[in-house]
């Protein structure tokens, strides 16, 4: 992950006066979560996002994405620092003890959703924080709802399972991203973390992101997702030369992919795989993909 944004483990964090803490699990980061950041932007002070490590979550189900991809996306948020929580280390802490350690009882602002609860058995509610932390300005933000229902990460996971990228695009702040493991530069295949929510088998418009030390390189592609986790990358090399993407795509990608971490970003469904004879990408498919590819899809 690029290191342009400071990420600090909870046990190493040193609080300062007038910090603004935006606290939540944030397994995904959707429009509802962004409403908390909008509130923080109205205030003066260091914006500290307090979130769980996606690779150490309390639930037993599949996670939305891996922690590396999650933090890489956070570099574009209007925040100054991330405090990273590991459930295995703090899951048994009382909520007020956790908040006292986080803030150091210094003057600060705490921004949470109105349904926020923390600590052992989720016993600490927003009203408890207001009563306990006398130096804290506690802001409970109304839950963002669409058509009477709140946006939930479980609904986003379901959309992934069915390959509904349009639903995801309408709800997420960033395009859906995950880390590519074990990239094979001969077969152009990669693996996903097996603990991530499955994505419907198919071909998706997207990009491969190469994480450099202080920046990134982006390569437009069709991404093939397979049930056996041998997923494919098909770079789109005949796009507009004046685009923001790299020009000499194949050469640059081969050099960069050998030395740096890769993220996969998917933005729109090209074709779902519903029959075994539909698993092969053709030259006509690639031509169609390059003809229809739209850089405006990328956030």
Automatic annotation (TrEMBL):
<protein>
    <recommendedName>
        <fullName>FAD synthase</fullName>
        <ecNumber>2.7.7.2</ecNumber>
    </recommendedName>
</protein>
<keyword id="KW-0808">Transferase</keyword>
<dbReference type="InterPro" id="IPR014729">
    <property type="entry name" value="Rossmann-like_a/b/a_fold"/>
</dbReference>
<dbReference type="GO" id="GO:0016301">
    <property type="term" value="F:kinase activity"/>
</dbReference>
<dbReference type="Pfam" id="PF06574">
    <property type="entry name" value="FAD_syn"/>
</dbReference>
<keyword id="KW-0274">FAD</keyword>
<feature type="domain" description="FAD synthetase">
    <location>
        <begin position="16"/>
        <end position="154"/>
    </location>
</feature>
<keyword id="KW-0548">Nucleotidyltransferase</keyword>
<dbReference type="GO" id="GO:0005524">
    <property type="term" value="F:ATP binding"/>
</dbReference>
<dbReference type="GO" id="GO:0006747">
    <property type="term" value="P:FAD biosynthetic process"/>
</dbReference>
<keyword id="KW-0547">Nucleotide-binding</keyword>
<dbReference type="GO" id="GO:0003919">
    <property type="term" value="F:FMN adenylyltransferase activity"/>
</dbReference>
<dbReference type="InterPro" id="IPR015864">
    <property type="entry name" value="FAD_synthase"/>
</dbReference>
<comment type="pathway">
    <text>Cofactor biosynthesis; FAD biosynthesis; FAD from FMN: step 1/1.</text>
</comment>
<dbReference type="GO" id="GO:0009231">
    <property type="term" value="P:riboflavin biosynthetic process"/>
</dbReference>
<keyword id="KW-0067">ATP-binding</keyword>
<keyword id="KW-0288">FMN</keyword>
<keyword id="KW-0418">Kinase</keyword>
<keyword id="KW-0285">Flavoprotein</keyword>
<keyword id="KW-0614">Plasmid</keyword>
């Amino acid at each position: 992950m690029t290191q342009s944004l400071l990420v600090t483990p909870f046990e190493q964090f040193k609080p300062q006066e007038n910090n603004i803490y935006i606290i939540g699990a944030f397994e995904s980061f959707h429009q509802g979560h962004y409403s908390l950041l909008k509130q923080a932007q109205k205030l003066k002070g260091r914006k500290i996002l307090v979130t769980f490590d996606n690779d150490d979550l309390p639930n037993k189900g599949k996670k939305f994405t891996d922690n590396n991809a999650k933090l890489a996306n956070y570099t574009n948020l209007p925040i100054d620092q991330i405090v990273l929580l590991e459930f295995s280390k703090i899951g048994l802490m009382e909520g007020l003890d956790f908040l006292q350690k986080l803030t150091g009882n210094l003057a600060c602002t705490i921004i949470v959703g109105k349904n926020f609860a923390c600590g052992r058995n989720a016993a600490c509610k927003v009203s408890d924080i207001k009563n306990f932390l006398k130096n804290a300005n506690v802001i409970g933000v109304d839950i963002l709802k669409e058509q009477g229902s709140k946006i939930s990460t479980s609904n986003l996971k379901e959309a992934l399972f069915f390959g509904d990228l349009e639903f995801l695009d309408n709800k997420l702040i960033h395009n859906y991203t995950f880390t590519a493991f074990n990239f094979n530069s001969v077969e152009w295949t990669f693996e996903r973390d097996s603990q991530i929510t499955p994505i419907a088998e198919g071909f998706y418009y997207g990009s491969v992101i190469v994480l450099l030390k202080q920046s990134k390189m982006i390569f437009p592609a069709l991404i093939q997702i397979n049930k056996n986790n041998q997923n494919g990358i098909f770079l789109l090399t005949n796009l507009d030369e004046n685009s923001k993407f790299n020009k000499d795509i194949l050469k640059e990608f081969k050099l960069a992919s050998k030395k740096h971490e890769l993220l996969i970003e998917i933005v729109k469904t090209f074709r779902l795989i519903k029959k075994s004879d539909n698993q092969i990408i053709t030259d006509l498919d690639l031509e169609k993909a390059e003809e229809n590819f739209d850089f405006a899809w990328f956030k």
